[in-house]
Write a structure and sequence with these properties.
The chain is an all-alpha fold. It has one domain: Orthogonal Bundle (Farnesyl Diphosphate Synthase). It is about 70% helix and about 0% strand. It has 16 helices and 2 strands. Strands 1-2 form a two-stranded antiparallel ribbon. β1 and β2 form a beta hairpin. α1 packs across α4 (about 60-80), α4 runs parallel beside α7 (about 130-145) and α9 (about 165-185) crosses α10. The longest helix has 24 residues, at about 165-185. About 50% of the residues are buried. The model has no long low-confidence stretch (mean pLDDT about 90).
Length: about 290
């Protein structure tokens, strides 16, 4: 199976388990709605690409880690879209979860996805107890406090927001989890892979900030200028559009160069370069060339 098939099979199995007999109908529908059809699956694809580059020694762990990371990402989107944060009406070109199912169900959907992610990782413990325990720690630290995606969201509640720290927590932490968990699952030395994830995470967030300012909402699948409307930090606003583009290009170049030595190093560098192509909206393709 290719990477995409592995991700979707792992996600489908986990959501099917979470929505099986006994689950309230609205919650079951919302869980499936939040995960399928997915977006670009950037984080789980990165996780499996790293695992493959390192030798893919423990494919069950790799698939579970990739799916867990995507479930946590989906949970963060559900919560991020809610009225207490972005109050976003659209996500991936259709009504956001709270718009479609109401705020109470949306809140519980995000919670249930978080629990499902860690339950999935826990199921790996009997077969690979040591590595699975490390996976739980890697993924857990990328989500919670003091520097996971929850802390990243919490920075939006502060009066002063340090942009670099905000990006590192809200986006970079889950990308770093993808690279380190992928390396661990593939048989590599996971500690060497954090920098790659952090650079890609910051690059992705800067690209998202640029898109928030200039991309066509119809193509992007969610409203534009949400950061300005909600008073959230935005790299394109802080650095200027040209400055943000140059920072993005520099980060992507550094990411390609910092891929640690591994059996699939060359192929992974190609994967990173190719996966970075859609980071910018096509309106800026010529500017970023």
């Amino acid at each position: 199976m290719d990477i995409s098939q592995r991700i979707e099979l792992a996600l489908d199995a986990t959501v099917t388990r979470a929505t099986s007999s006994g689950c309230p109908k609205q919650l079951a529908a919302a869980l499936s709605y939040a995960v399928f059809p997915g977006g670009a699956r950037v984080r789980p694809r990165l996780c499996l690409a790293v695992a493959t580059a390192c030798g893919d020694e423990f494919p069950l762990l790799a698939d579970s880690a990739a799916a867990a990371i995507e479930l946590l990402h989906c949970a963060s989107l559900v919560h991020d879209d809610m009225p207490c944060f972005d109050n976003a009406e659209l996500r991936r070109g259709r009504p956001s979860v709270h718009q479609n199912f109401g705020e109470p169900v949306a809140l519980l959907t995000g919670d249930a996805l978080i629990v499902a992610a860690f339950e999935l990782l826990g199921r790996c413990i009997p077969s690979e107890p040591v590595r699975a325990a490390r996976l739980l720690s890697i993924v857990g630290s990328s989500v919670g406090s003091p520097s996971g995606i929850i802390s990243g969201q919490a920075w939006e509640c502060e009066e002063t927001v340090p942009l670099a720290e905000y990006h590192r927590a809200k986006t970079g932490s889950l990308f770093a989890a993808a690279t380190t968990a992928g390396a661990l699952s593939g048989g590599g030395q996971c500690d060497l892979w954090r920098t790659l994830g952090e650079k890609l995470g910051e690059a992705y967030q800067i690209a998202d900030d640029i898109c928030d300012m200039v991309a066509d909402p119809a193509i992007r699948g969610k409203p534009a200028n949400r950061d300005a409307d909600r008073g959230k930090p935005n790299a394109a606003d802080a650095l200027g559009l040209d400055g943000a583009i140059q920072r993005l290009k520099r980060l992507l170049g550094e990411a390609v160069e910092c891929v640690p030595a591994c059996p699939g190093q060359a192929e992974l560098r190609v994967h990173i370069a190719r996966s970075a192509q859609p980071y910018l909206p096509k309106e800026l393709a010529l500017v970023a060339a």
